[in-house]
Amino acid sequence: MGLQKRKGLNRINNSGGDLVNTERLWSDLQELGKIGFVEGEGVTRLALSDADIAAKEWLTKRMKEAGLEVHMDAATNVIGKLKSATVRDSKIVAVGSHLDTVPQGGRFDGALGVLAGLECARVLQEKKIGLPWDLEIINFSDEEASHNAGTVGSRAMMGTLSRDEIYRSKEKGVPTFAEDMKRLGKDPDRIGEAIRSPKMFKALLELHIEQGSLLEARGIDIGAVTGIVGIYRYSVEVLGKTDHAGTTPMSLRDDALVKAAPIFTLLPQWVKARNREMVGTIGQIGLEPGATNVVPGKCMCTVELRSMKPEDMAAIRDLLREWVGKHKGSSIKTIYEKDSVELLKPVIDTIVRAAEIEGLSVIRMVSGAGHDSQSFAPYVPTGMIFVPSRGGKSHCPEEWTDAQQAANGCRVLLRTILELAGQDSTP
């Protein structure tokens, strides 16, 4: 049943294309994209850096201008609330994503979801469309793992962030989340105050760029996400012996890099043999002491596995541990293990219906990237909306989504909110 047939909601017959202000949304994306931008290097807004704090302040100002009640919680999440004039349901519908970026990233990853949520709130007020529950727009803090593991703000809100995690740094010279909280005037020991009961939420919705090429390749407007892959990450160290590179014969060397080298080719072989839809990556390699004329005494690397099937990631993890165990002086430490999640079918169906109402093509698909939605999905009805990424590029300066594609995603987000409102307004 379409919304126009539902009692009390005939004022929202308009297409989302008639409601969403494409130019305003695009202007917001471009203006926010200037914060942390360096020509030729993209956008760098590492979580709780000066640039990220400036982005939070910029968003707070925009939210207040839009008439939202705004506050920063104990985990540094920025939350803007659009209160319902006639609340029928005490639960909240939240729209969230993140403003922090990877080093030299793009201007759409995360930002589109937050700013589209803000645009939806503006439209609802401008058109005097009442909702049967409060709507929250949330900027989750440190989704991109600048300090240690990612999705810090969303996991803090769901109570799944381990207490000691914010006091650990992923590498030397990088401040901990707790240290940066103090710089922002927040007390790390009170981060637990950010926890909210999942029962408070009716749904969480997240609009995001795909960060892949499937939608573009197939000429599809919208992806309705059915699940988000799990991510297992490990730190591997292989020890050798530091020696002079000029005076130590090849036959007498114990080169840590040479000892570690087999794992660089073994990992992709293991992954391909286990599951063609699984991926494994060694994205960081470090050597100590790291001098041109010194035989490496230590080789460090990170191993990341992603799959919808936890048993497949566990199998590769076991192979990795077995390999490490056979090499004296090697060790493996777990950075974190986050299992895949399935998103709720009724919410997925609502997103598909919303896209169809808007006249947009839509497919159901899995997300190969992690998102804040992953923190909520086990506890709160959750839905994700994807829009195309040019060339599948993301986490780089070339990341791009056209203005109309961004607006299409916002239209579907708004229509999904209205569909949920229509369901709750039906006697």
Low-confidence stretches: 1-11
Quote the CATH topology of the largest domain: Aminopeptidase
CATH structural class of the largest domain: Alpha Beta
CATH fourth-tier homologous superfamily of the largest domain: Zn peptidases
Question: Approximately how much beta-strand content do the residues carry?
Answer: 15-25%
Overall form: globular
Total number of beta strands: 17
Quickly give the CATH architecture of the largest domain. 3-Layer(aba) Sandwich
Features:
427 residues, alpha+beta, Aminopeptidase, Alpha-Beta Plaits, 2 domains, 12 helices
Could you outline the blueprint of secondary structure elements for this entry?
Elements: H1 16-19, H2 22-32, E1 37-38, E2 42-43, H3 50-65, E3 69-72, E4 78-82, E5 92-97, H4 111-126, E6 134-139, H5 152-158, H6 177-183, E7 201-209, H7 214-218, E8 222-228, E9 230-239, E10 243-244, H8 256-274, E11 279-288, E12 294-295, E13 298-307, H9 310-325, E14 330-338, E15 341-342, H10 345-357, E16 362-367, H11 373-376, E17 382-387, H12 403-425
Parallel strand pairs: 5-6, 5-7, 7-17, 8-16
Antiparallel strand pairs: 1-2, 3-4, 4-6, 8-15, 8-17, 9-13, 9-14, 10-12, 11-13
Helix pairs in contact: 2-4, 2-12, 4-12, 8-9, 10-12
